[in-house]
Design a protein that fits this description.
By secondary structure, this protein is mainly α. It is built from 15 helices and no strands.
């Protein structure tokens, strides 16, 4: 979930947003979506969907772009820069804001457990040469990743802004390297990345649902669009440009990953990829734990969250992450844990669609109603496959 920026932009950035609002919106959309999911999701989708992975990614990008277009038009002339929770709260009432904050606070903890398990699987794969069978062997490593992330979140200062700006690029380059080497290699059913016992349709639905984790970030438009003050055409162009950037990155990685395994990766390369993956993902755990604590702070009575959450709240979020990690010590633990963020995104985007139906003009109301029908329909279709596997 994308929060409004903690610090004011630079004068250069403000001038760029004023003169090139479409590019500013596109940058915020792409930056919001492209993150830890670039590393985690390509192997997961490949393990679950196989040759249909490219179609699953394409469906995800189309749905995410539609969500961003509806949310962008919803807030464009109605609100200032806010989070998704703030937007639906302003338009639907406090209950909607608290609902979105509540589901995202819980979902973020499950998401960090999934990220930690993926990092642990990467390290175990580097040691063994192949993804290990599911079990508790990776739990100490996953808990270690979470512990480092929580310790960083408790630090008195935030990571440097320059580091955070360059982190998505580092994640993208690393994800491309992993895709080129098809690493982690062939994580089939019975590993942390793919559960056993799922039917082929059930695995496809699980891949599409888990991809909502990678799609947490389309709501960045609720902060970006009001900040630049662009008209409807430039706003739509900026959102579409951002969606195109996401499509190039995600579909490109999926296409490379879909080539299948080549020559075995040498041990030094395996360790380099594994350690780099663990470092980058731990940095995402750090910032996401802080975000989850800020969201949780807003749920307390009178709790307007400050920029730095209180240490006890950070520790509580960290404890919840560890509990989810413990529960994830099973086959398919990573995508099953990602269903938490997926459900939160579904709730948040559905409430955004409801707000569009209630407060939009004729075109926005129609788009909101169609989006709401698609989201609800996907949930209704997916539940039998996911629960009956």
């Amino acid at each position: 979930m994308t929060e409004p920026p903690d610090a004011p932009g630079t004068a250069t950035g403000d001038r760029a947003a004023a003169t090139r609002p479409g590019r500013a919106i596109a940058g915020r959309v792409a930056g919001g979506v492209l993150g830890a999911g670039l590393l985690v999701m390509p192997p997961v989708v490949t393990a679950l969907a196989g040759g249909a992975g490219l179609l699953v990614w394409a469906a995800h990008v189309l749905l995410g772009g539609a969500v961003a277009l509806v949310l962008a038009e919803l807030v464009r002339a109605r609100l200032g820069p806010v989070s998704l929770a703030g937007a639906v709260g302003a338009l639907l009432g406090t209950w909607a804001e608290r609902t979105v904050d509540g589901v995202f606070a819980v979902a973020f903890t499950a998401g960090q457990a999934a990220i930690a398990w993926f990092a642990a699987t990467a390290l175990l794969t580097a040691a063994d040469g192949a993804p290990p069978a599911a079990g508790a062997d990776g739990l100490p490593l996953a808990l270690g990743v979470l512990a480092v992330g929580v310790a960083g979140a408790l630090a008195p200062s935030a990571p440097p802004a320059a580091l955070l700006r360059w982190r998505p690029w580092a994640a993208g380059v690393l994800a491309l390297a992993c895709a080129v080497w098809f690493w982690p290699a062939d994580p089939g059913p019975g590993t942390a990345l793919a559960p056993s016992g799922f039917s082929e349709p059930g695995a496809l639905w699980l891949a599409l649902a888990a991809l909502f984790f990678a799609g947490v970030g389309w709501e960045a438009v609720t902060g970006a669009v009001p900040a630049v003050g662009a008209g409807p055409r430039r706003t739509a162009a900026g959102v579409l440009l951002g969606a195109a950037c996401v499509a190039v990155a995600c579909l490109g990685l999926a296409a490379v990953q879909g080539r299948g395994a080549g020559a075995p990766v040498a041990a030094p390369a395996r360790w380099a990829l594994a350690v780099a993956t663990a470092v980058v993902l731990t940095s995402y755990v750090l910032t996401n734990v802080r975000t989850a604590a800020r969201i949780a702070a807003r749920l307390r009575p009178g709790g307007a969250a400050g920029r730095k959450p209180a240490p006890p709240l950070v520790l509580a979020v960290g404890a919840a992450c560890c509990a989810f990690a413990w529960a994830g010590a099973r086959d398919g633990g990573v995508p099953l844990l990602l269903l938490g963020p997926a459900a939160a995104a579904l709730v948040g985007y559905a409430l955004g669609a409801v707000a569009a139906v209630r407060h939009g003009g004729p075109l926005l109301r129609s788009a909101g109603a169609l989006l709401l029908a698609v989201l609800v329909g996907l949930a209704v279709l997916a539940v039998p496959f996911l629960s009956g596997a």
